[in-house]
Design brief:
Length: 131
């Protein structure tokens, strides 16, 4: 293979994997939330709205979003901040493929599944729904 073909293949794989991840999250919307135990049980079964924020300490984009979420997790029993390096089981149950990922659950159904950083105003809007 020549150099141009190799570069084209790498670019295609990079963008193809990005598109696959976005497409996969779109198919999760409207599906039932995974059955989890412990502190998550009540939040997933209830009729209210719950938010699950998945982050990694080594993620640059997470460093800007995590403080915003932290302010809400202290005051809400329906908002969860999950470090994927410490709780990989929960991340797998939701099908998290990258961080930061934000999952909004309403009445036991996945209402929104967002991968990647979002503006603070969008995040606050989602977090306000969990009150």
């Amino acid at each position: 293979m020549n150099l141009i073909s190799m570069v084209a293949l790498v670019v295609f794989l990079f963008f193809g994997l990005q598109y696959f991840m976005v497409l996969r999250t779109k198919f999760k919307k409207g599906k039932a939330a995974p059955q989890l135990g412990g502190k998550f049980t009540e939040a997933l079964k209830g009729k209210g709205t719950s938010l699950f924020y998945f982050y990694s300490p080594s993620c640059g984009a997470c460093r800007t979003m995590t403080p915003v979420v932290s302010r809400y997790t202290k005051n809400s029993s329906r908002c969860f901040k999950i470090d994927v390096s410490k709780d990989m089981e929960t991340a797998r149950a939701f099908g998290v493929m990258g961080t930061p990922s934000t999952v909004l659950i309403e009445g036991g159904i996945i209402k929104d599944f967002i991968v990647g950083a979002r503006p603070e105003s969008d995040l606050v809007s989602m977090l306000e729904q969990t009150k």
